[in-house]
Amino acid sequence: MTAPIEAPVPQAHALAQILIADAARAQKRWAALARTPTHEQHLVAKRHLDYENASRLRLITAQHGWPGRQLVGVEGATAAWQIALHADGIAEFQRIAERLMHRAAHQGDASFRQWAHLHDRCLLNSGRPQQFGTQYQHGPHGPQRLPVLDPATLNDRRDAVGLPPAAPALTAVRHRLTAHRGPSEEEAEGTSAPVMAAV
């Protein structure tokens, strides 16, 4: 019998608490934005909170690198990812955060699944199709996946980073947004879509 794997104790507890508090403050707006059709995104006016959070995350990454599980624990690392995912207003930093998180994932200090969401977001923000199909926008019949590079091999790429197949993931996103529940990273697709969904 093997002992259960325990989450690492954060080395920087205070830093973790800052990240968690920042993400929690923005969570309500992100959830509302996830259910707002693109043409009604008056909520975008409140993006100052995302900018403020991203600016603080930028300072943290400049001092510590990516705030991964070892530094800030699982909850703090998830909060850092959520903040980076919503840093669309600071696209240059968002791309830096994506590269730092990718490196951390290769070192076992970040989630490849979460990184895939951030990677797709960065690709779309630079006008390119997404690689893993994690980003959606509202369409006339509910959430629609934004353009994907080479759709024929999408499920293989998703599987490589621990994401479920694309079709059930889209169904889960539609169900989650229809049910008016808050997004959860544990649900089939995770929690992001650039135009409509938020962590």
Rounded average pLDDT: 83
The counted number of beta strands is 2
The string of secondary-structure elements, in order, is HHHHHEEHH
Spans where pLDDT lies below 50 across 5 or more residues: 181-199
Tally of helical runs:
7
Strand proportion, as a percent range, falls in under 5%
Pfam families: DUF6624
Region (Disordered): 178-199
Protein architecture, described:
This protein has 199 residues and is mainly alpha-helical. The chain has one domain (13-178). The protein is built from seven helices and two strands, in the order H-H-H-H-H-E-E-H-H. The protein has helices at residues 13-34, 48-64, 69-85, 91-106, 112-125, 154-160, 166-178, and strands at residues 136-139, 142-145. The protein has a two-stranded antiparallel sheet. Helix 1 (13-34) packs antiparallel against helix 2 (48-64) and helix 4 runs antiparallel to helix 5. The N and C termini lie far apart (36 Å). Residues 178-199 are annotated as: Disordered.
Keywords:
globular, two-stranded antiparallel sheet, 7 helices, disordered C terminus
Give a concise summary.
InterPro entries: DUF6624 (IPR046732). The protein has 199 residues and is mainly α.
Topology:
Elements lengths: L12 H22 L13 H17 L4 H17 L5 H16 L5 H14 L10 E4 L2 E4 L8 H7 L5 H13 L21
Antiparallel strand pairs: 1-2
